[in-house]
Specification:
By secondary structure, the protein is of the alpha+beta class. The protein has a single domain, classed as GTP Cyclohydrolase I, domain 2, CATH 3.30.1130.10. Helix content is 33%, strand content 28%. The protein contains 4 helices and 4 strands; from the N terminus they run E-H-E-H-H-H-E-E. The chain starts with 5 loop residues before the first strand and ends in a 5-residue tail after the last strand. The relative contact order is 0.21.
Length: 125
């Protein structure tokens, strides 16, 4: 990883059908994704050309497809799919993915439940 250059995507909200319980799979709920993409941004900073960076609009579409087109029981699995998909399609050094499930079926008062993973290019799963 080169320095501390990072592209942040925060608060990406999608309605999807992930979860262990049958009600979650039938009714669906909101999921919120935060992602950090670690990539050397010096060339883009100098050239001012989109082809010298990672196009966050394209990253958004990849995340959207991962969240809305497939169904998973575990947040961990969804986070892994997002990380692997982004890393396969874009030449980033590493990523951080956090999947939030604000309406998780927990009998209590809470703001949010989330899973966070970090992945580096070249790591084996």
């Amino acid at each position: 990883m080169s320095g501390h250059d990072v592209i942040h995507l925060r608060g990406l909200e999608f309605y999807a059908y992930h979860g262990v319980l049958p009600e979650e799979q039938a009714l669906g709920q909101r999921f919120i994704i935060d992602m950090d993409i670690f990539y050397d941004l010096r060339q883009a900073g100098t050239s001012d050309q989109v082809e010298d960076t990672i196009h966050y609009g394209e990253v958004y579409q990849v995340i959207k497809a991962c969240v809305t087109e497939d169904r998973h029981q575990l947040l961990e699995h969804l986070a892994e799919e997002i990380a692997l998909s982004v890393m396969q399609l874009f030449s980033c050094a590493s990523v951080r993915v956090e999947v939030h499930k604000p309406q998780a079926p927990i009998p209590g008062i809470f703001r949010d439940v989330s899973v966070e993973i970090w992945r580096k290019a070249g790591e084996r799963v």
